[in-house]
Every structure is written in C-alpha cells, then in structure tokens.
C-alpha cells in the first residue's frame, strides 16, 4: 500500500510538473509572436480612416478581433504575415485591422456596431466590411485551423471570397 501511495504521489507531481512546463512553453511562445493589438487606440477612428481608403482604393476591410492575450490571435497574425501567398493577397486586395478586446479596452461600442454576436464566436474572429462600412460577414477562425496553426487553402478561400 505504501508503494502504491508513493507511486501515485510521484505520478501526481510528474503530471503537475509537465503541465507547468507546457504552460511556461506556451507563454514563452506567445512572447515571441508580434503583438498587433493596441488597447490605447481609438478603434472607431482607425476603422473610419481605413474605410475611406477602402472606398477610394476598391478594397475590403478585414477586422481581426482579439487581443494580445490570445495565443490563437497572435498565431493567426504571424501565419498571415509569414505565408507568402496569403500576405501577397492581403497586400493587394485588402486592408487589415486588429480590433482590440481586453480588460484595458473592450471597445464595446465598436463591437456592438459591427459584431454584437462576436464574442460568442471565440477569438480571433473576423468582421468583413465593404468600403461603405457595411458588414459583409462575421466569421469565426476555428474552421480555418489545422493543428496548432492554420490551413492555407481554407484561409485563402476565406479571403478570396471577399475580394472585390
């Protein structure tokens, strides 16, 4: 019995140690990724400026909602900038904005205006606007995932479906 208790005790601490190491690795990984969200920004003013450019240049505005606290938000940002095809598509046909949601700034008025159901989708999620500021879509990102990253064909199909 004593050996069983000792064995369980060792197993418990090994699992706890492993979980702590995994959490530390995830934090370290998130610290390596760019932090594109700016809680201090005036999101509505930024979006209004981008919509003027979108209208003039015939582009679509993609808003990625999330925060620097969200590993999947940071991964998606890193993914779209490191994949040459996706990066080129975004550069040529879209404007892109990171709408912050955090304890520092929840941007409640902006979310209410463009995506009142947004938070229920999880983060990140996307708001697609035409040059007139009309919401074309509000979309989750989960369906674009592949393992701990994203699927190129699904991401390209998503963006291409809103090319003007």
UniProtKB/TrEMBL annotation:
Keyword Transcription in annotation: no
UniProt keyword annotation of Signal present: yes
PROSITE patterns reported for this sequence: PROKAR_LIPOPROTEIN
Keywords on record: Signal
Signal peptide limits: 1-19
A Pfam family this chain is assigned to: Thioredoxin_7
Protein's recorded name: Thioredoxin family protein
